[in-house]
Amino acid sequence: MQTNWPENWDIAVAADRAHVWHHMSQHKIYETTNPTVMVEGKGLRLWDAAGNEYLDALSGGVWTVNVGYGRESIADAVREQLVKLNYFAGSGGTVPGAVFAQKLLEKMPGFSRVYYSNSGSEANEKVFKMVRQISAQHHGGRKGKILFRDRDYHGTTIGVLAACGQAQRAEAYGPYPDGFVEVPHCLEYRRADGTDAPFGEVAARQIEEVILREGPDTIGALCLEPITAGGGVVVPPEGYWKNVQALCRKYDILLHIDEVVCGIGRTGTWFGYQNYGIQPDFVTMAKGVASGYAAISCTVTTEAVFEKFKMAPDDPMSFFRDISTFGGCTAGPAAAIENLRIIEDEGLLGNTVEMGAYLGEQLSILQDEFPVIGQVRGKGLFWGAELVTDRTTKEPVSEVSMKEIVGGCRKQGVLIGMTNRSLPGFNNTLCLSPALIARRDDIDEIVSAIRTSLRDVRL
Ligand code: PMP
């Protein structure tokens, strides 16, 4: 419990229970229990309205608060900017937008343009629109198909749900636009090809089969997460990315990497793709860009792509006919500039590599203790533990048991996650992504809570 808890937040809890429709939540339980309403955060710690303290191993529930809670310098930077100029959009820019773009691109050799919006979904949808417009202008409308991968997620709007590799998230909301085609996942633990050939080659060949079946001339882009997040924390096999990049070059397909989760340090490099020596054509990012201190997302691309939109001025398609109202808020880039400074000045990429390795080691020790842990996988401070009832058959642990394990950690004051209503029968991966400031004792506390929870749950 936080000491000196001064306020009575019962009114907020009652108002939340009566009026707020929570994301991803089944509300029946709130007929008999109170929802959690968070009040305060500092570092990796959170306090709710009932005064409970939590160690947040998820960076705000969904991999977002990379620099941790309670950063006064970000709040100060945002305040200073808001009183000077809060907003301008349409056909002009703002000073923090320009400054952040330049600082961001210094971390991204080969890229030169940043398009602002305010959510991961929107950033991804901008790419889809750009690809479709390139197809319309330069390929007679024939090269507009977009490939996405089983298990990957790119957002919540109908456009990006058309590219959703997590069936349960999309099933109620169709019909979807045409021209989105799924390719197989790259989770070696669940490979289904029945060979022992290097899986980095097999998984890329499976993509090539789809390209050939659809016709390379019809495909504009391939959209992938560098490490799949909600679909099971899938770290691609050795060689995969090099092969995927080669396919894109061979068939003239633009490579779009969705860094909404991995971007801005999560895996110990600025971007997930930078672990793999590849050079995409589009990179999208959102969550860690301003660590949740303000809403901001970016669609980043190359000069070669940008140039394709500079047609003759009298051509009706001579520019990208798109706008994002809140892409003109200055709070986002102002927060993002300070967020980048913190990561640099506090050496948080190095900390992520070091603490990520430690977290991985501790999870491997846990795997030796508990046969239910089929595989641990991750990079930086981004880890998953896939739970199975039998290591040979790899039968997934039931969703009910998964919820008990997550709930057991929560009772001990540690917030961890699980793959969430994404793949039918496969919501069996525990997810961990503490803020990039995590220290050894935080990791010990997280792993210890999982250990206790695994001991207590009857599987
Ligand atoms: N891409 C990925 C990989 C994500 O995990 C998410 C959100 N969890 C999104 C896109 C969508 O971002 P947003 O919720 O900000 O629209």
For this entry, give a set of tags.
four-stranded mixed beta sheet; alpha/beta; globular; 2 domains; binds 4'-deoxy-4'-aminopyridoxal-5'-phosphate; transaminase activity; Aspartate Aminotransferase, domain 2; seven-stranded mixed beta sheet
Task: Provide a descriptive summary of the structure in words.
With 459 residues, this protein is an alpha/beta fold. The chain has 2 domains: 10-65 and 347-456, Aspartate Aminotransferase, domain 1 (Alpha-Beta Complex); 73-345, Aspartate Aminotransferase, domain 2, CATH 3.40.640.10. It is 36% helix and 14% strand. It has helices at 10-19, 59-63, 72-84, 95-106, 120-138, 158-161, 167-170, 199-214, 240-251, 303-307, 331-345, 348-369, 399-411, 440-456; strands at 38-42, 45-48, 53-56, 113-117, 145-149, 180-183, 219-224, 254-258, 282-285, 297-301, 373-378, 383-387, 414-415, 417-418, 429-432. The protein has a 7-stranded mixed β-sheet, with helices on both faces. Strands 1-2-3-13 form a 4-stranded mixed β-sheet. A 4-stranded antiparallel β-sheet has the order 11-12-15-14, with helices on one face. Strand 11 and strand 12 (383-387) form a beta hairpin. Helix 4 (95-106) packs parallel to helix 11 (331-345), helix 8 runs parallel beside helix 9 (240-251) and helix 12 runs parallel beside helix 14. The chain is globular and about 65 Å long. 4'-deoxy-4'-aminopyridoxal-5'-phosphate (PMP) binds next to helix 5.
